[in-house]
Amino acid sequence: MKALTPNQINSILGHATDVIHAARTFARSGDAGGYLCIGDNTTGVPFLLTLIGNMPEERARACAGFAQEKNRRLGANLHHRTSWESRDEEKEQYPGAVRGKQLLWSFSGFPSKTDEAAMLVSAIRCGDMTIEEATEIVGITGNPVFHKLREITLPTQ
To answer: How far is the C-alpha of 131 from the C-alpha of 135, rounded, in Å?
Structure first.
């Protein structure tokens, strides 16, 4: 396992912050942020966990935990491309993480479809996933938010 470089961290944080701010358009009223977790593609071990935007203190601990759990679960299921595939809401195992070429991308703070869409677009913007790969994942999850968020955050391809 190799650590992220400072340039990678800056790129991830810059792109993810832009996308997450745009994603608020599709979130519940009052949702202003959440936790981003970037992890190792094969283990789910986190490289980066950070709050983006604002969040009430009473939700912060839970959302930080959910973001990490999504990556751990996706890392444990190597044949899955998204945490949607192993979701179990009764066990508080939510969608919102996706597998890029080199990293796992997870967010918790918005409704799960918005969390997932924000990670798909962030991974595309950072070059860790193609639009075609993201579209395949959306074919699995049926996420209606992805295309709307993509339209406002990605240059026309």
So the answer is: 6
Q: Which residue, chain included where needed, has tokens 């930080």?
A: 64
Beta strands in 67-109 (DSSP E): 97-99, 103-108
Tokens for 18, please give them: 């832009």
Bridge partners of 49? 37
Alpha helix stretches (DSSP H) within the chain: 6-23, 57-76, 112-125, 131-141, 145-153
Q: Tell me the three state secondary structure of residue 133.
A: helix
Q: From the CB of residue 20, how many other CB atoms can be counted at a distance below 10 Å?
A: 27
CA distances from 28 to 9, 25, 32, 57, 110 (A): 28, 8, 9, 17, 7
- pTM over the 0.85 mark: yes
pLDDT digits (tens, 9 = 90+) for 104-127: 999 999 999 999 999 999 999 999
